[in-house]
Structures are given as C-alpha cells and as structure tokens.
Amino acid sequence: MLRHRIEDLPGLFYNFANRMYLHRGRHSYLLFILVLTSIFYSASASAVPAFYIEEGNAFFFRGKYSKAVLSYKKAIEESAGSAAVHLNCALAYRTLGNLKDTETHLRLALTFKPDDPDIRTELGWTLHHQQKLDEALTEFTAALNLQPGNFSAGIGIASVYIQKGETSRASELLDQLKSKRPTFAALYYFAGKNFERAGYFSSAQENFVTALQKDWTFAEIRPRLARIYKLQDKMEQAWKQYARAAELDPLDSYSKDSARQLERYIKTPSPSGPTPAH
Question: Smallest Cα–Cα separation from 262: which of 228, 237, 235, 241?
Fold first, then answer.
C-alpha cells in the first residue's frame, strides 16, 4: 500500500491554487497552475496554430469561456494537439461547470504528458466532483507517486477518504499534512469536514474556527460553522457566519437566505440590517 509522503514545497503557489477549487466547483482547482503553465507557454508550441490559442486566451481572460473553448478546439482540429491546448480547453470547460468535457480534455492532455503530476491531480479533482471517488483516488495516488511532495494530491486523497467515510485514514493523512503546512487554512477546513462527517461537532467547530483564524476570507467554512452553532442553539453566532459568508460570496444564495431567516434572533438590528463581525 502506498505510504503517502508529503514533503516540503513552496506554499504560496499551491495555497492559492488549492483555495480556488473550494469555491463550489465554480473555479478550477488548478486555475492559476493551468493559466501559468499552460496558457502562457502554449502559444510557443509550433505544432498548434498560435493564432487560435492566443484568440482563446484573449476570450478566456475577458470571461467569454464558450468562445475560448471554440478557439481551443479549432487549434486542436487543425493540428496534432498538445497537452497545453487540451489543458486550456479543460480549464475553460471547468469554468463553465462542464465537468464531463473537462475530464475528456484532461485525459487527452495525459496522452501527451502521462507523467505530469499536475494534470493527474487536476483530473483527480474533476473526477472527485463527479463522485467518481475510486477513479479520483487512483489519479491522486499516481500524482503523489510521480511527485512525492505533491501537496495538492495529498489533500485530494484525504478528501476522497472523507467522502468515502474513512475518517480515521483521512485524519491520519491530514495530521501529516498539517505538520508540513501548519498555517494552511484549507487543511483545517478538511479536518473540520472530517470530524463533522464522523459526528464530532466540537472538534469540527475547533478546526473550522482555526481555519478562519488563519484566513478569515475563507467563505466556504462559514456555513458549516453556522450549522454547528445552530445545533448548539447559538443563533446569533450562526447568523453572523451566514451573513459573513454571503458578504464574501455574493453568489451564495443559501447563506444569504439562511442569514435572513435568523435575523429575528439579532438583538438590535440596524435599519439597513445588522453588520456581521469578522
């Protein structure tokens, strides 16, 4: 059985990339990894028509993701393709929420670079979000074998364990990851999810609070913490978490609606509505 070795690697780069994926699938897990390693060097690949790639990149950065897909697919059709252009296409599909086509292009990228741990990690997360947990675990494990210090793949494996209900294995791996990145808020988020899954709400709360202390902008934590406060009948604290989550993520209608439902528990609401604390 693979013994997961999580070694040191630069934290800022993966810190941001890991956070991006947590936004309910609206962003790519490797958003900036793909942008930096794929989009900006892909136009130099002689086998792929540079015009269509540059056109696709321009559409992508203007938020026209469907048009970006069309440009990347033209580049693929008129050449033998490359790992880079398939990664670009996968990123555009992921941003559109099309996980099936994201998976297709990541697998095509792997035909060009089968030993690329970042592609396998991204494929693992794409499979994970389609609930293809065994396939996701295979890709994360392959990525970690290719690159023992692949922090992203390690988190992916822990997340699969959580989803499969293997809380002890998840906890062991997350503790190992924490020892390498004690300031990384996402680790405490996943640890909190793991304890929540196991029914240990006090430990879940402790980890969620710790994660917010390390990164108060981590919006995804707040609804989970709010639900724990509701279980404890701490309605004002629950409201604060929902309200802050809605403020941080305007597209989070669930938190916005939940905060509105709990407003009656607030002692002195202002005319424009109470302002939550950090």
Answer: 235
